[in-house]
Amino acid sequence: MNITKLVYSILFTLFSLTVLAQEQKPPVNPRQAAQQVRPPQPPKIVPLQQPPRPRINQPQQAPQQPRTKPQQDTARPVQTPAQAQQGPQQQDRVQLESADDLIGTTINGKRVNKLIGNVIFKQKETFLYADSVYQYRDSEILEAFGNVRINQADTVTMTGTKAIYDGAKRTAKMSGGVTMQDPNMTLTTPTLDYNLDSRTAVYTEGGTIVQPENRLQSQRGTYDTNSKVFTFQQNVKVFSPDYEITAQNMRYNTESKVVYFQGPTFIKGQNGDLYAEQGTYNTVTKVSRFGRNAYILTPEYRLGGDDLYYDEARGYGEAKVNMTMRSLKDDVTIRGQVGRYWRDQGVAKVWGSPVMESIMDGDTLYMAADSLISREAKADGQPSMLFAFNNVKIYKSDLQGTCDSLSYNRTDSLMYMHRNPTLWSEQSQIVGDTIRIHMRNKTIDKMYVFSNSFITSEDSLQNYNQVKGRNMVAHFQDGRMRRVNVNGNGESIYFALEGDSVLTGMNRAVCSDMVLNFAENKLKSISFLVNPDAKFIPPHELQASDRRLEGFAWLEELRPDKKEVLTPRTPVKAPTTPSKAATPAKGKASGTKSSQSKGKKPAAGAAKPTPVRQ
């Protein structure tokens, strides 16, 4: 009887110990239970038969519970009944998925679970993998070591040698050769801070982003995995087979492959370089949209402005607002409000009060027109040309001119002035149907005046020495007119002076060929070459009709100054309809000065009315 009671007492004690051990274990999901629970083995359950293994830095506490599998150890604080009722909040906490071994310890006075081997933690859609992890029991902080990998929603993956994961703040601090990957790029950096809620990564110790088309580097950067936008700061560089970008501040969309500039930015391409202080550049289509002091630099031109568009694939550029275009071969600069450039054609067009500036013999030649077109030579033997259209004005300190249109062959240094060209040099005026100017070393060497050529020179008494003929050739020395040859149908009027103040008479001659000699840009003498018909008229016999050759017109009012050439042009207003009281009498001319076109002049040989100056 006593033996029977003893047996029942032993069995009851064993059963109580088993139930007590099971109540103190954390809940295990069915999958884990199926994989890890073994049939109970009494010899391993009895503490006296299986003494616990020693622990490093293990505090003196009550005897530990028997160990079976690491999943059955305490991976986080034991749930209370109130916590068990929270449901979704409990699922948001960091949860241990698996580990090879678990050791309870204390670090700096904090209770820590040290998990070793194939450690996996989960929080929401995020998984953390590592060789070992310190789990702080009184917080949601994990400190992971060795082959650390964090994966969020199967889209963002980060790897490194160490990480501090804060489940409460939802942040991860990665270090040790960090690599971050998503479907659009791969980022490598020494350290990385990542916010799992905003899905934003920040690095401050230099980083490199690699894509199939581009490689980007910067000292500091931020990556928003939602918008797929990188924000780069300090020493930013972008490399590709077709271009290189250098900047201080830049944003980059890893999906659209568009770069956004903020600050001085240089783009070095195969077909030209670009600079801007703000704007965008599509690395796929090679289309740029720049602002603030932007320019395109090609072997032929430098095209700039505050609003710049350039399509590198098409070779087309457009600049607006404070536009400048500079020809690098001959150091010619054109300024205006709108400029367009076609690289393959070698053509550039500027309008909106365009002005050309060219350095000539230590002086600057300015030329203004309604539009300017430059065309580069695209083949051997083809000239490089500059065209000016409508109301052309030229200013140089010793030479001024006007015409309707102009062409300049930069290859041969030849300039053609078309339709009513007029030139002034000091006190001399030259007109003709067409004027051709030969340049040498950026100075005027010869000038050809074709058809209805007419030279007028004003003396100190405001008399007008005049020479007309079919064609003329003017020779220059050091930029000044020295000699003029008249070829065909020559006529002249020359006033003879004693000193610079007394008129002694006037020579009038008709001769097919003449030679005019100038000194200090003033007519000094005329030589008659073939059978001249000349007469000398004393002052008291001079009539008004004797003082003018047919076709004479002194056009000083059309002579442009520097301010006029550089002043922006405004559209000419249409003339208003005159009132009945202002209607001219029958038979009289109905035109008024205000209705005269500013840029038009009568042909040489006709009286020229005074134009309205803008």
TrEMBL record:
Disordered: annotated segments: 26-95, 563-614
Domain Organic solvent tolerance-like N-terminal: 92-247
Signal peptide, first to last residue: 1-21
Biased composition annotated in UniProt, kind: Pro residues: 39-54
Low complexity: compositionally biased ranges: 55-72, 79-91, 570-614
UniProt keyword annotations, A-Z: Cell outer membrane, Membrane, Signal
Pfam family, one: OstA_2
Domain of life: Bacteria
Gene3D superfamilies reported for this sequence: Lipopolysaccharide (LPS) transport protein A like domain (2.60.450.10)
Protein name: Organic solvent tolerance-like N-terminal domain-containing protein
Species this protein is from: Pontibacter amylolyticus
Classification lineage: Bacteria, Pseudomonadati, Bacteroidota, Cytophagia, Cytophagales
